[in-house]
Structures are given as C-alpha cells and as structure tokens.
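Researcher: We plan to redesign the surface later, but first we want a full-length starting point. Tokens attached.
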C-alpha cells in the first residue's frame, strides 16, 4: 500500500467507489483498533466530543450493536433511533429526518435502509458524515470489510486467494460489497447459487459463476455462505428449504472434498439446517464468531477515518470564508 494514501471521503457508501489503496487503508487502520479492543481498557479518546446516530430503517442485531460498541470504544456519544417509534411513522421524509438529526449537531449518521441508494441520497444532502450499514440490495460495505479483514488476518493475504460466495446472490448486498472489495484486492471470486438466484450480468464484475456447490468448494481457500432470504420470495420461485440444503447446504461431508483448512464464513444470522449444518457452523473451520469480533475493529476504523476527513473538509471550508 502507498504510505501516502490518505482518507479524504466524509462518507462510506460502498466499496464499488473505493480504490484498492482506500480499502487497504481501512484494513490497516482496523489492525490498530483490533489491538485496542484486546486491551483490558478497551477505549481510546479518538472521537471524544463527537456524536454518532444509528438510524436503522430495517431490523438489525449484529451491525447496529457493533457500530454502537465501536463508537463507544472511540469515546463518542451514541444515539440509537428506531424508525418504528420515530416521526418516520408520521410520514417524515428521509431527507427531513436527516436534516433534523444534523441540526442537533450530530457528526456521523450510520444508516440502514430498505431502499438501494438511500445512503447516497442522504449523504448528498448533509454536511454530517454518512456510513452505509446496508441499503436495499445495493451494498453493505462494513460487512464486506470485516469479512476481508478476517480473511487477511487468518490467511495473511487477499491477493491470489480463491473465495467462493454461496447462496442468495441476487438479493445480497453483502455479496455485492464482497465482490467489489475482494476483486479489487486481487482475489479470485466464484459465486454459486441456483440459477434463479444469480443476478444477470454478474460475470461482468470479474467473478466466476457456477451452480455446482462441489465445484465452488473444490479450490476455495474460503467460502462465504449467505443467508437465504426466503422472505423476498413473493412468487414462490426459490427452491424449497430442504431442497436448497440438499443441493447447496454446507455440510461436514461436503467439506471433506474441500481443502482441509478452508475457512467457513457467514454474515449472520445463520439458518441452521438450510445454509449449513450445525457441525459446520460450530466446527474447526468456522470463523463466524471471529467475523463478529473483527466487525468492531473495522467499524472503529471507518468511524475514525470519516470523522477525521470531515473535520478536515470543514476546516478548509472555514479558511476559505
């Protein structure tokens, strides 16, 4: 990585728009913050005096709590807004909600929204930093970053790795962010799913496509298993749950055909007995809980970098006046 690379963006909206150097900067910053959260006193004053708002329009456990812990580890003040009990229920628009939050002198808004592009729209209308915690089927950048961080920590590199992503590719923002991040860092990515769950044109992102789970496992250094989003199956087009598990579920028997030290990942929540068996989820190859821990370090790095960049942007604006 170029040591002169600096983070200059006030927002983190997706990995598609980032350079390889910017992704590497987040990952290297996360290494330092991983050391912080391993200490007895797990706190630094990097964001003391800053306020972070978690604005979630969709349910979340891991991501929201992870961002809250990350912000508190950086000594920021944290406010959680559940939209089902906010003025959103009264018809307030996203932009109005954002501007009212910003008027309270908030510094960073972490937002999850059910519409693709919502984070970008909010960022364009606010001076506060916006971090995309998942928007529709578009991207989930910090999940991909923590996945990539875990791979790098466990395997020592990303360049040249064979990574297979298995499951509901069509509806997965996690898959999209992982594809952008991994390919930019030089990994070879394979996506594997039933044909109706592979998005049209995904090959143009540089990935290999297969509907054969054994082929996806054969040369993989790691496999990232996605949640099957059966709630999106309004037309009954998805395979039945038992059928899916039979043809695509990750089992101990299937892993015997893979590399002995293959890493098994999952962004959560896991549907046991559908996406993978419990003995795989809890087995020696699984790094699922390590992903959760690493999410705190990665989100600390993102919060710190966007806050620092936005401060510099504001200072430049003040000097021009």
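Model: Full-length starting sequence:
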């Amino acid at each position: 990585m170029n040591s002169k690379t600096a983070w200059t963006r006030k927002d983190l909206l997706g990995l598609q728009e980032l350079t390889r150097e910017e992704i590497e900067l987040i990952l290297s910053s996360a290494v330092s913050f991983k050391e912080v959260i391993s200490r007895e006193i797990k706190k630094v004053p990097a964001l003391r005096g800053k306020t972070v708002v978690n604005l979630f329009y969709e349910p979340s456990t891991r991501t929201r709590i992870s961002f809250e812990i990350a912000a508190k580890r950086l000594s920021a003040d944290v406010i959680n807004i559940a939209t089902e009990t906010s003025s959103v229920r009264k018809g307030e628009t996203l932009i109005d909600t954002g501007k009212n939050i910003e008027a309270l002198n908030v510094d960073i808004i972490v937002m999850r929204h059910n519409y693709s592009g919502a984070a970008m729209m909010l960022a364009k209308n606010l001076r506060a930093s916006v971090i995309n915690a998942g928007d529709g089927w578009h991207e989930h950048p910090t999940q991909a970053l923590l996945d990539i961080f875990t791979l790098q920590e466990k395997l020592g590199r990303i360049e040249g790795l064979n990574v297979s992503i298995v499951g509901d590719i069509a509806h997965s923002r996690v898959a999209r962010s992982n594809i952008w991040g991994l390919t930019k860092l030089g990994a070879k990515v394979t996506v594997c799913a039933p044909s109706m769950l592979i998005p049209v044109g995904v090959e143009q992102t540089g990935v290999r496509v297969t509907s054969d789970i054994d082929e996806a496992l054969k040369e993989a250094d790691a496999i990232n298993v996605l949640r099957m989003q059966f709630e999106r199956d309004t037309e009954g087009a998805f395979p039945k749950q038992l059928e899916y598990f039979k043809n695509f579920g990750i089992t101990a028997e299937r892993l015997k055909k893979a590399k002995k030290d293959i890493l098994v990942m999952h962004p959560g929540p896991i549907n046991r007995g559908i996406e993978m068996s419990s003995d795989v989820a809890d087995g020696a190859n699984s790094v699922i809980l390590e992903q959760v821990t690493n999410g705190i370090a990665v989100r600390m790095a993102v919060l710190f970098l966007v806050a620092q960049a936005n401060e510099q942007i504001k200072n430049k604006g003040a000097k021009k006046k």
